[in-house]
Amino acid sequence: MHTLPAVFAMNLPSRTVRNLALLAMAVVWVHSVMLGGLPISLGWLQAVQSPTADSSTSFLTRSIPAPTPAPPAAPKMAAATAPPTEAPAIARIPEKKVAATPVQTAQAATETIAKEDLQPASTPPAQQPPQAPSTATSAMAAVSLAVPAPVRIKYDIKGEVKGFPYTANGELLWLQDGKTYDARLEISHFLLGSRVQTSKGLISAQGLEPIRFGDKVRSEVAAHFERDKGKVIFSANTPEVALLPGAQDQLSVLLQLTTLLGNEPARFVSGTQIPFQAIGPRSAENWVFTTGDLEKIALPSGDMTGLKFTRPPVSEFEPRLEVWFGPDVAYLPIRIRLSQSNGDFVEQMWRGTQKP
Questions:
Q1: Where are the domain boundaries for CATH 2.40.360 in the chain?
Q2: Strands (DSSP E) found in 7-93
Q3: The model scores a pTM over 0.70
Q4: Could you report the per-residue pLDDT of 285-330, keeping only the tens digit for each?
């Protein structure tokens, strides 16, 4: 049985058949020359467009997969043109990173300065009934004191909140005339603003006796020591607390340690515990400092030696407080560090001194 082309050829004159054969051979030769010179990429394109191409064209079979990849291309195109379900999430991610992260960083840094530096968050006063002064506190009351002379201390502040580092400036102004004292600690950042803590009171045979403690970020809250009534009242409308012997506020407590160390440092051997009732702007806490060892510290002002004191967290989520007091600078605090269990911290380092 003849195929259709063969039957068609048999009915034509021999000359015509010969001419057609020559024409067919010429067409095949021209196509082979043209296709043989195409780049690989165009060869791939032609193979996609003509999946039935002659398998004898060797460069096509080497440069492309089998024709079957063409059908899977349809889902890819559909996924690109159809409304993707993940598009909103992808759009929100950059917005969150660009818009939220700097704000969170600034807010977190402000919160670290405002809530952690020298003032851990307080436990509700109702959970802390008045306690009798411990024997350690009474023993400290019998120690002679060495109140440091007036001075202005400059600190470099550095910290980290949720992996974002920040820096700030710090200044402690200490004034005293032998009968009264006035302390002011300011931490400031050119973008975040400042936080100021103040402590004012009397100087007695027991050391510092605060009368008023203030804490200001945007507005000030304060604690007032009513010693004649044996209580502390707060401007933040939180419940008053009983005033215990040897009580300090959260700024004066550091300077009280300075006065205790200044006269008899040998008394504070490693492991000595010193408890205080520490009054904050809204409540009272029980702080216990433990004496450590002398350590060499690299500070912005140069290397100094500091006697380390540690106050552990007062609750599970509170910061750990570490303070180093410098023997070469009347045992004033040369380094103060607050650190959280999640790695967040804030630290102030002695940079220099000025006349008050």
A1: 104-354
A2: none
A3: no
A4: 999 999 999 999 999 999 999 999 999 998 888 899 999 999 999 9
- Amino acid letter for position 166: Y
Q: Record the tokens describing residue 201, joined without a space.
A: 């009171």
The SS3 of residue 155 is strand
The β-bridge partners of 299 are: 302
> 191-234, pLDDT tens digit by residue?
888 999 999 999 999 999 999 999 999 999 999 999 999 999 99
Q: Scanning the structure block, which residue is given the tokens 């009732």?
A: 277
- Identify the bridge partners of residue 335 per DSSP, sorted by sequence position: 324, 349
SS3 15: helix
Domain 104-354 -> CATH class: mainly beta
CA distances from 103 to 96, 188, 191 (A): 10, 17, 11
Rounded Cα distance between 271 and 308, Å, is: 11
The answer to whether the beta carbons of residues 289 and 128 sit under 8 Å apart is no
What is the amino acid identity at position 45?
L
